[in-house]
Each structure stands twice: as structure tokens, then as C-alpha cells.
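This entry is retained here.
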Amino acid sequence: MAVGTGAEGYGVFPLRSFLDFDIRDGPDGATVAFLDVDDRHLNPNGIVHGGVVFTLADTAMGRATMAVLDDGQTCASIEVSVRYLRPIPGGRLVATTSVIRAGRRIVHLECRVTVDGDERPVAVLQGSFAVLEA
């Protein structure tokens, strides 16, 4: 399924395949993405690269946005802010996204990234996604 044909197909693209993460619909309209950290995800300092965390969360936010859109609509991120709170040496990343407000033209979201088994966030993100006609 191509991007823009519903939430279930959202997030199918080569970078996701390279990073090897999974994304699912969670409870109450949330989206949850998972990534098992390995060497390809690390920066030269041996911790997870910020771009990996961003890509995981941005994709989860896109899928959550798609879940609240009507047929024939798609989305694009227009602003995403990220705050990295702790270094991530490894483990399984869990990015949980919720829709704060779904307007006709813009959807506002929050995403919290944790390491599986530890509820303390390693990063928090806020984003706004444009609603586009496909």
C-alpha cells in the first residue's frame, strides 16, 4: 500500500527498511513505533544518532495523522521539534504518539520516546502536520 492510502500503509519506504523499525496502531488513537538498536543506528560516540530517533518519531507522528484523516487526504510534516533528554546506548526504542488536536488543515501531535522497560523518556517531540488532498 502506498503512502496516502490510509494509516495502515503509512510508513512503507526505503529508509524505514534500512533502519528496520516496526510501527503499529496503539490504544485510543495512539501510534507506537519500535526499533531494536544495533550498530547501524549509532553515531561515532557509540550512542543512538539523533536522526534515527527523529525518523522513528516523525514516521509515528505521520501514521497517527493518517489515522485521523478522511479518505483522499494525506499529510506532510510542517514542523517538528525534538528535545533529547538522555543519551541512548542501546536497547529497544519505543516511540508513542498521540494526536493533541486534529483540525481541518493542521494536525498537532506529541511523541514520547523511551527505551523498553524504562518509562523515563529519552526524547520528547511535538509536531504539526499539514492535511493535504491526495
About this structure: The chain has a mean pLDDT of 91.
